[in-house]
Target: Oxidation resistance protein 1
Amino acid sequence: MPPHINRHISFFKNAHNHIISPTAATPATSNNNGESSYSPISPLSPTKRNLVRLTGRNEHTLTVLDPAIAEILRDTLPPLQREADSWQLRYSTDQHGMSLQTLFTRANESTTARGAVGFHGPVMLVIRDVYGAIFGAFLSEPPARHKGFYGNGSCFLWKQQHHPNHTDSGSKTISLYMATGNDDYFMLSESGAELAFGAGDGKFGLWIDSQINMGHSETCSTFLNAPLATTPGSFQIDALELWSFNL
Model:
């Protein structure tokens, strides 16, 4: 792992904030008391891996997700996805247009030598609002029109922390909001006109409109997350990306 990355990750579980700084780590798990744990990988481990490569961007466009944050997020993923040393861009607003239907189509297709085939693997959603805040969600399956809630407890929300007094990549940190177990309201896109993650009491952890122009984020029971955008409540989307994991 790059030594210059300050890997502080905040976990929120049952209203408790767990802050740690592992050199490298495995995903959070929950015990019978509902408490989050995060186990560091031993520095003596013989396992070595390449740093994450972000592929699929047009060379003249700017990515929302940068390699430093991707590397931090990597250690929060399920074991299989953690092994992926390259992530593939499946959708971005600047390359594919601002349309939820286009996102659904591209999220659920893979191109092979035999043509387009269905894709069903986990993906990482990344958003930048117009004030520069970067946040997103790990999704256990690609977003699509679906009856009722779907997804599973591996889904989580996250946001990059802003450090106004630090400009180097070593100061980058994220807050991570794991599923609480309070409900199973992980993903919702029943009408195809909106996309939401986390719910409860009429509030969504993250909600996106059909034109990928406006969003909304509030604390929800599914993840007990802090609002993700620059300001609580509604926000305007500057750019959105969806990444899959090359395995």
User: Anything to note?
Assistant: Residues 9-246 form one domain. The two ends are 19 Å apart (CA to CA). The chain has a mean pLDDT of 81.
